[in-house]
Every structure is written in C-alpha cells, then in structure tokens.
Design goal:
Blueprint (H helix, E strand, L loop, with lengths): L2 E4 L6 H9 L8 E5 L2 H12 L9 E4 H13 L14 E2 L22 E2 H26 L2 E4 L9 H9 L4 E6 L23 H10 L4 E4 L2 E2 L4 H8 L11 E2 L10 E6 L3 H8 L2 E4 L13 E2 L8 E7 L2 H9 L6 H11 L2 E9 L17
Parallel strand pairs: 1-7, 1-8, 2-3, 2-6, 4-5, 6-7, 9-10, 11-15, 12-13, 12-14, 14-15
C-alpha cells in the first residue's frame, strides 16, 4: 500500500525512509528522491550508515528522475517535440519570456529542458504515452520514496498520481508547513493545492484509496517552548498541536525571547545563535551575516536569532494580523531550526506577551 507520512519539523520524516530502506530481508529495487542536492547528500550518507547499504537504493533528485525516467525516453511522443533530442536541464532562476512557442517553449537552443517547464513536459509525456512510462518504471523499481514531497507543485502532481496508480509501492514524506521551495514557480495548474492547500491533495488521494495517510504529531528536535511557539503560526484546526519529546538539560538557555537593540551584542556573544532573516534587504543588528528563511530549511541549531518582517512582528504582537501563508511558513521554518532557544530581534518589546531577554547569569 502507498503511504504518505506528514510530520512536523523534527518529526523524523527522513528517518522513516532510512528505516524502511534498511529492511533488506527481501530484495527490493528502490529509488529515493528529494529536491535539493544537499538533501541528496544527506540521504546517501544516512543510507550508507544503515543496513540499507546492503541494498543501496538509487538516490536522485526530482528533476533528474523526471528527465531520466519520463521525459528523455518518451519525449518524441509529445507532438511538439517530435524529432527533438532532449539532453539535460536548463536551470531557470527568474521567469521565461512570454513569446516562446513550439519546441522553444520547452527547450533551449542546445536541447536542455527549462526547469520551469520540466513538470509540464513530464505531464504531457504521461498523457501521450503514460502506459509505456509506467511499464518501464515498474520494471526498474519496486519501491519509490519521495522525501520533502511538499516541494513538488503543479504538474508534478500528475506524475505523483501516475505513480500512485502504478504497481510500484510509493512512500511520500513531508511537512506542508515547510513548503518554501518549489519545483516550479510559474505553474498555474492545481493552484488550489498551492501553499498550505497541498494538505487537501493528500486527503483527496487518501479518499480515493490511492494511499494510506499517516500523521505524526511529535518532534524530537525542539524543546516544548519552541514547539508551542512554532505551532502558533497556524490554526489548530489545520495542524493539531505538536508534542515535544525533548527534555531540556539543567542550566540550558531555552525558550522564546525578545531581544532589544541594547542587548543584541551580548545575546549573540553569549549564545552564538544561527541568524535568519527574510531577505538581503532585511536590516541586521549586531551581526553582518544571516541566512534567508528559504535557505535554512534542513538545518538544526542549538540557538536561533530571527530578524523578523514587520508583518511577523505585528502578528506576534496582537495575534490578529492576517499573516500570509508564505510568511507563516517562513517563520515556522526559522523557529523550528532551534533545539533550545529562539531570539526575536525587536526595536522595542512594548506590547508583546513574549518574555524579554536581558543580560544576567540566570538565562
């Protein structure tokens, strides 16, 4: 049976994949797929350190999977690509010109597929010759695991649907609250599943009987105070409360604190927190460097210092601000990088119900 495991930050999602792949009693041909190259390296390291090394799965990225197993072998089945040879991937950082058409809509001059159009092209290949694509995959793999599945978007869902309907056992793991990256920024397909709406897609697939939906509501990363603060970024009807399994060591600085300008230098000197911000335009105080929210996903730190946006500060002050989903996810990811403490820089702590950190030997 196909499985989807949705779990919070620190919910041991990737470990679930490692444990399943470590079951080598019966020979299985497995693929483990994730989005970023850094995540692929971590997966390879952890798989090799487990019993899975005896039947080492193929570890690959989502783009490489689509290229190698969907697009390149069957691209000629798409009318606009007949006679074309698909070579590789052309990464697109921004947006593509609006006037592209025909073959040029998908491929650049040397035959590489634009990353923004790869999911769309894979969807068209499946529509044109899906039976052949799936038959080939069924002969190559018994099981396919997809980590960080929340990063998939738009036409990628057509590929997931085809896999779920195949004879291959599919295991999906992820956390919709951490949906900061995206395989396609311009796709307009399935917009109702964008952002937090992806949760609805999982429930619909479960109702169709295509997967068994499992949810985990524990974290083994964040202490209780950090966990509770992170949970407040979303309504409890969509995401039930998370239980922290972390025990704080005696004497450890922990919890969530506001840090004002007069004390920021001492806070950084004392706790050496990982610093996170919205973008390079965010004003920093007490440090010259910080990681953007979208780039810190996957990290685990003892202490974190957040330089929040104005809307985040307003939300934490009155809890009535209608914060956009993207901002909620940014804040959630930044908060849940921390094991023990989260500091939030503010010019003034007036009006907040969050404790204020001041230098003392007691915290």
């Amino acid at each position: 049976m196909n499985i989807a495991i949705l779990a919070p930050a620190g919910g041991r999602k990737t470990q679930k994949i490692i444990d399943m792949c470590a079951d080598v009693a019966v020979p299985k041909k497995r693929a483990v797929i994730t989005f970023t190259t850094s995540a692929q390296k971590i997966l390879i390291y952890r798989l090799l350190a487990s019993a899975a090394r005896g039947q080492m799965p193929t570890v690959t990225g989502w783009y490489a999977f689509l290229l190698d197993h969907v697009v390149r072998p069957y691209a000629p089945s798409v009318r606009k690509l007949q006679g074309a040879r698909v070579k590789g991937l052309a990464w697109v950082d921004g947006t593509l010109p609006n006037n592209l058409s025909g073959l040029d809509y998908y491929l650049n001059g040397v035959g590489d597929v634009y990353s923004e159009r790869l999911g769309l092209l894979a969807s068209k290949v499946l529509k044109a010759d899906g039976a052949a694509v799936i038959d080939r995959l069924e002969r190559i793999f018994d099981e396919i695991y997809i980590d960080e599945v929340q990063d998939l978007r738009g036409n990628d869902l057509d590929v997931l649907d085809a896999l779920l309907c195949s004879k291959i056992r599919v295991v999906l793991v992820g956390d919709v609250r951490q949906r900061l990256l995206s395989t396609s920024k311009s796709s307009k397909k399935y917009e109702k599943y964008d952002g937090l709406g992806l949760t609805d897609w999982f429930h619909e697939m479960a109702k169709k009987g295509l997967l068994n939906l499992q949810t985990i509501q524990e974290t083994w990363r964040c202490c209780p105070e950090v966990t509770q603060f992170a949970d407040q970024m979303f309504t409890s009807d969509r995401f039930p409360p998370t239980e922290s399994k972390v025990v704080v060591p005696d004497g450890m600085h922990h919890g969530v604190w506001l840090v004002e300008k007069p004390h920021i230098d001492e806070y950084i000197r004392r706790f050496h927190p990982a610093c996170y911000r919205d973008s390079v335009r965010t004003k920093l105080v007490g440090t010259d460097s910080a990681t953007n929210f979208g780039l810190c996903k996957g990290a685990t730190e003892d202490h974190v210092l957040i330089f929040p946006t104005g809307t985040m500060k307003k939300f934490w002050k009155d809890k009535t601000n209608d914060l956009a989903d993207k901002s909620r996810m940014n804040a959630y990811v930044a908060i849940t990088r921390a094991r023990w403490s989260v500091g939030i820089y503010v010019d003034s702590a007036k009006g907040y119900d969050i404790p204020v950190w001041r230098p003392s030997w007691n915290n």
